[in-house]
Specification:
CATH architecture: 3-Layer(aba) Sandwich
Function: Catalyzes the phosphorylation of the 3'-hydroxyl group of dephosphocoenzyme A to form coenzyme A.
GO molecular function: ATP binding; dephospho-CoA kinase activity
Order of helices and strands: EHEHHHHEHEHHHEH
Radius of gyration: 17 Å
Catalytic activity: 3'-dephospho-CoA + ATP = ADP + CoA + H(+)
Number of domains: 1
CATH topology: Rossmann fold
Strand content: 5-15%
Family: Belongs to the CoaE family.
Strand order of the largest sheet: 2-3-1-4-5
CATH class: Alpha Beta
Number of strands: 5
Keywords: ATP-binding, Coenzyme A biosynthesis, Cytoplasm, Kinase, Nucleotide-binding, Transferase
CATH superfamily: P-loop containing nucleotide triphosphate hydrolases
Bound molecules: dephospho coenzyme A, adenosine-5'-triphosphate
Shape: globular
Number of helices: 10
Distance between the termini: 5 Å
Length: 203
């Protein structure tokens, strides 16, 4: 089976691209979605996170206080490493579980930190980067509940645009000035190519 790793910086357009690919028949395994379910009520990661970060990590509504946790991990490398040591093995495990239920033309793993970690590069046949300049990332993310400082901080922690592009077998350009329709056209071309390629990856 053909396995594509789809990556890109925060706010680059991975979700937009993966939704289009899903419509074309790709089987999508989204690591952000897995991370969310692991940290929602009853999620397997939640007790482990409370153990490391304390009860303060749960807000008054009983849910994980994502905003508080972001403040802890994005300004403290060792806190981030602690969270990642809880999350990454679980994300990897549940990605493998989802892979066993594979139905579709080919598989797309959506992984924000694909080039920052080693495990994902070994799991995929090709890396596709959704490429986007920093100013556009900041503009898109400013519509979310994130401060400008936090947005810049997350971007600075992640791999630099050009370092990420070095790993790319395929690129989807999604800078400012590229409309969603233009993204659609690029995604359709990638899909046609990957679908053709998938026939050589039948096992
Ligand atoms: C800190 C958490 C709880 C905040 O939750 P929230 O719902 O606000 O964030 P969300 O899951 O939507 O992530 C948004 C984006 O933040 C970036 N991001 C998340 N974690 C990290 C990280 N450890 N390092 C760098 N960037 C990160 C990614 O670009 C991601 O797409 C969450 O991001 C998380 O669980 N992070 C650790 C797991 C992880 O490393 N995920 C990345 C996928 S492999
Ligand atoms: N070409 C585009 N034109 C207009 N809006 C866009 C374009 N590409 C993405 N967007 C918008 O930008 C925002 C961020 O895109 P998206 O959620 O797909 O990024 P992401 O890489 O999945 O982000 P994250 O890393 O946070 O998960 C969304 O609101 C999306 O609709």
């Amino acid at each position: 089976m053909l396995k594509i790793g789809l990556t890109g910086g925060i706010g680059s357009g991975k979700t937009l691209v993966s939704c289009l690919l899903r419509d074309f028949g790709a089987y999508i395994i989204d690591t952000d979605e897995i991370a969310k379910s692991l940290t929602n009520i009853g999620g397997e990661a939640l007790p482990k996170i409370v153990k490391v970060f304390g009860k303060r990590v749960i807000g008054s509504n009983g849910l994980l206080d994502r905003s508080w946790l972001r403040e802890q991990i994005f300004y403290d490398n060792s806190a981030r490493a602690s969270l990642e040591s809880i999350m990454h093995p679980l994300i990897s495990y549940y990605s493998d579980m989802m892979l066993r239920q594979y139905v579709g033309l080919y598989v797309v793993f959506v992984v924000p930190l694909l080039v920052e970690t080693t495990i994902w590069l070994d799991k995929v046949n090709r890396v596709c980067v959704v490429d986007c300049d920093k100013e556009t990332q900041i503009r898109r993310l400013s519509e979310r509940n994130l401060s400008l400082d936090m947005i810049k901080r997350i971007i600075s922690i992640q791999s630099d645009r050009y370092a990420r592009l070095k790993f790319a077998d395929d690129i989807i350009m999604n800078d400012s000035g590229i409309s969603k329709h233009e993204v659609f056209k690029q995604v359709k071309m990638k899909h046609n190519f990957w679908y053709m390629l998938s026939k050589k990856f039948l096992v």
